[in-house]
Amino acid sequence: MAGFGALHSSALAKGALDTKSKQFIVLDIAIAVHCDGCIAFHVHDALNTGASRQETVEAIGVTILMGGGSFMVYGCEALEAMNEFEQEQSQPI
């Protein structure tokens, strides 16, 4: 597990692509492979890198364009996850 964690951190670190762009790539792949846990994880992390709602919606839209109907189902799950994370962030502690 530690090895995968190190790979995760290294792969998503800023390089030629910024971390936010990389989060959109992994989110789009998570939608493509229908991984619910990955979708939630990477929506959360995309928002934490400063991704706006509009940027995230556009990234999800590109995925749906390339994958059609089944990608739409999982793209909608990503939107639901984003709504939940935004709601949690706006509630007082």
Question: Unreliable segments (pLDDT under 50, ≥5 consecutive)?
Answer: none
Which class do the helix and strand fractions yield? Answer: mainly alpha
H/E element sequence: HHHHH
Work out the number of β strands: 0
Q: What is the CATH superfamily?
A: AhpD-like
Second CATH tier, the architecture: Up-down Bundle
Q: What proportion of the residues is helical, as a percent range? A: over 70%
Largest sheet: none
Radius of gyration: 13 Å
**What gap, in angstroms, lies between the N and C termini?**
32 Å
Give the averaged pLDDT, no decimals: 91
Individual helix count: 5
In total, the number of domains comes to 1
CATH topology: AhpD-like
- Global geometry: globular
Strand content: under 5%
Question: Can you give keywords for this protein?
Answer:
5 helices; 93 residues; mainly alpha; single chain
Describe, in plain words, how this protein is organized in 3D.
The structure is a single chain. The chain is mainly α and 93 residues long. The chain has one domain (2-90): AhpD-like, CATH 1.20.1290.10. Helices cover 81% and strands 0% of the residues. The chain has helices at residues 2-12, 19-32, 36-48, 53-67, 69-90. It is globular. The model has no long low-confidence stretch (mean pLDDT 91).
Chart the SSEs and their pairings:
Blueprint: H1 2-12, H2 19-32, H3 36-48, H4 53-67, H5 69-90
Helix pairs in contact: 2-3, 2-4, 2-5, 3-5, 4-5
Quick summary:
By secondary structure, the protein is an all-alpha fold. It has helices at residues 2-12, 19-32, 36-48, 53-67, 69-90. The chain has a single domain (2-90), classed as Up-down Bundle (AhpD-like), CATH 1.20.1290.
